[in-house]
Amino acid sequence: MEADRMKPKLTALAACLLAVTAQAGEVFKTTDSEGRTIYTDRPQTLPAERLDVRTSTTDTVEVARRYDEQKKQYAEADKARTDAVQKATDAKKTEELTAEDRAKRCVESRERYESMMNARRLFEPGSTEGERRYLSSEEIDAARANAKQTMDEFCTGQ
Q: Of 39, 67, 87, 120, which residue is the least packed, with the fewest Cβ within 10 Å?
């Protein structure tokens, strides 16, 4: 039973070893009748210049390390990009909420200003419950100016 499971693994290992140990053959450089350079392992015309091709094996540990490092860099870049998109979305949402809030406050401040302008006498709550203190003419003018300034502040650009 264990031999049946090992056979495919050994076959795959043998195939990998054969692929890794590919032989580097001889490489020749020749020119054809039209003057084009041809690189081949079997020259058709002589003289052919034999090239010294040097090969080396790949350091699989180094490749794996570089791959992991690059994968981490990509993950960090992707996270930074995602964070930037999230921040932009949050800023836009906040701006929209602020616009809605400003519109609501504009309506409220306009209603308050209009009610102050239409009222003959203005008052504010007194020190005890149910008591009113009526404002003087100067205080009324100041309250109306303050209400106008608040309305202008919230209603600009709308």
A: 120
Q: Rounded to an integer, what is the distance from CA 87 to the centroid of its chain?
A: 9
Report the pLDDT value the prediction gives residue 129, as an integer from 0 to 100: 82
In whole angstroms, what is the distance from residue 47 CA to residue 45 CA? 6
pLDDT at res. 98: 80
The domain locations on the chain are 97-157
**Dmax (CA) of the chain:** 120
Task: Retrieve residue 82's tokens.
Answer: 């995602």
- State the Cα–Cα distance between residues 29 and 41, nearest whole angstrom: 9
Taking the C-alpha atoms of residue 67 and residue 96, their distance in angstroms, rounded to an integer, is 43
Return the percentage of the chain with pLDDT > 90, whole number: 29
- Residue 21: the pLDDT is 46
Rg (CA), the chain: 43
d(CA 156, CA 146): 16
